[in-house]
Write a structure and sequence with these properties.
- This protein has about 80 residues and is an alpha+beta fold.
- The protein has one domain (about 1-85).
- It contains one helix and four strands.
- The protein has one helix spanning about 1-20, and strands spanning about 30-40, 45-55, 60-70, 75-85.
- It has a four-stranded antiparallel β-sheet, with no helix packed on it.
- Strand 3 and strand 4 (about 75-85) form a beta hairpin.
- The longest helix is centred in the N-terminal third of the chain and has 21 residues, at about 1-20.
- The chain is rod-shaped and about 75 Å long.
- The chain starts with a helix and ends with a strand.
Length: about 80
């Protein structure tokens, strides 16, 4: 009788853990997101968009920066670079 109750404990513990996982949030929750422009001497230098999400046990920060670069013909072009932390 003692051996059967020892085998029942791990099974009931697994059932409890699986039940707890059923109530865990399935999606990440958005904490903050947005975008802003960067200026230097009243000239646009670039921009950044960002998103901060909260998962079950983690925090994710994703950002994308855009830099405005001058071209040889006097115009400008943008280049972007994604960043994840």
């Amino acid at each position: 009788m003692l051996a059967s109750s020892a085998h029942e404990r791990p099974a009931s513990l697994i059932a409890i853990l699986l039940g707890a996982l059923a109530f865990a949030p399935a999606r990440a929750e958005s904490v903050d997101e947005g975008s802003f422009k960067v200026y230097r001497f009243d000239e646009p230098l670039g921009a950044e968009t960002f998103a901060i999400t909260l998962g079950h046990d983690s925090l994710a920060v994703m950002a994308r920066q855009y830099l405005t670069l001058p071209t040889s013909n006097g115009g400008s072009r943008s280049s972007g670079m994604p960043t994840c932390w």
